[in-house]
Amino acid sequence: MKIIVGTRGSKLATTQTMWVIKKLKKNYPLVEFEMKIIETKGDIDQEICLEDKGIFISAIEDELLEEKIDMAVYSVKDMPRSLAGGLCLAAIPRREDARDALLLKKGYSSIEDLSKGAKIGTESIRRGCQIQVFREDLQIVSIRGSIDTRIRELHEGDFDGIILAAAGLKRLGLEEHITYCFPIDQMIPSPCQGILAIEVKKDNHLLLDMIQTIEDPISTIQYQAERAFMKAINGGCQIPMGAYCMVEGTHLRLKGLLGDAEGKRLIVKELNGPIGSQEQLGIELANVLKKKLELED
């Protein structure tokens, strides 16, 4: 049996895909897996907003529907609000570190060391707004490209620091570049940051059963809560938004962030509930934050 796995061609995307293949290969050693690189709209057009959901997915979904590939692996936070008809998520494997990481230029050891007006590179309005909560003097400067490119620009370019997802750095074995990981209470991550999606056709029952053997229950609950939150917010590329679900025994704590388009006002709220209420909790938290933000207009 041979399974063709679709992925973007970036170093991170292929590394994540190989991680999933390795997990499946452990359970199904006789199955042959082949990785297929697919170029997406987000890879071709570097000017598109990174949080414009779907730019890294639609070309991959087309190949799934046309049965040119059997399954696809990508980051959940790149997913649009709804999958293409006929497709589904087969499973959510174990989540990597969800936090945001601060990487500083040589000579700096903490965010407090940065001089007034220091330049921090990020393409995320969510990250930029939150870091300015405790260092409003910092300049937020746009930076794009692969993780390797951004790290190189940090040390060679006009940046004093950059903010990246800890998950990507850890998956690529680049932890040594991390100066500091922001606690969730300091910087709420993007919903589902660090979670991978494995997508297949709904009617591929054999493959669905295979992939579900690597599902992680805790990561799945986090996905359901944070994904419901994101869909209920229904915000665009320029809306600061974050969510993180903490699973503590049979209890859930969902922390959410929502801001205005200018990033001048940020609302943070936490709701609690039992396991089983994760999607309802996500929707409720989104509605609470939206109402509170509207009242402050």
What does this structure look like?
Helix content is 33%, strand content 24%. With 297 residues, it is α/β, with parallel strands linked by helices. The protein has three domains: 2-93 and 195-215, D-Maltodextrin-Binding Protein, domain 2 (3-Layer(aba) Sandwich), CATH 3.40.190; 100-181, Periplasmic binding protein-like II (D-Maltodextrin-Binding Protein, domain 2), CATH 3.40.190.10; 226-295, Porphobilinogen deaminase, C-terminal domain (Double Stranded RNA Binding Domain), CATH 3.30.160.40. The radius of gyration is 19 Å and the shape is globular. The N and C termini lie far apart (58 Å).
Protein traits:
9 helices, alpha/beta, five-stranded mixed β-sheet, D-Maltodextrin-Binding Protein, domain 2, 297 residues, single chain, globular, Double Stranded RNA Binding Domain
Q: Output the helix-strand order.
A: EHEHHEEEEHEHEHEEHHEEEH
> What average pLDDT do the residues reach?
91
Radius of gyration: 19 Å
Count the DSSP helices: 9
From the 3D coordinates, which CATH architecture of the largest domain would you assign? 3-Layer(aba) Sandwich
Q: How does the major sheet shape up?
A: 5 strands, mixed
What would the CATH topology of the largest domain be?
A: D-Maltodextrin-Binding Protein, domain 2
How far the N terminus sits from the C terminus, by CA atoms, comes to: 58 Å
User: Which strand order does the major sheet show?
Assistant: 2-1-3-10-4
Which blocks of ≥5 consecutive residues have pLDDT under 50?
none
CATH superfamily of the largest domain: Periplasmic binding protein-like II
Care to count the β-strands? 13
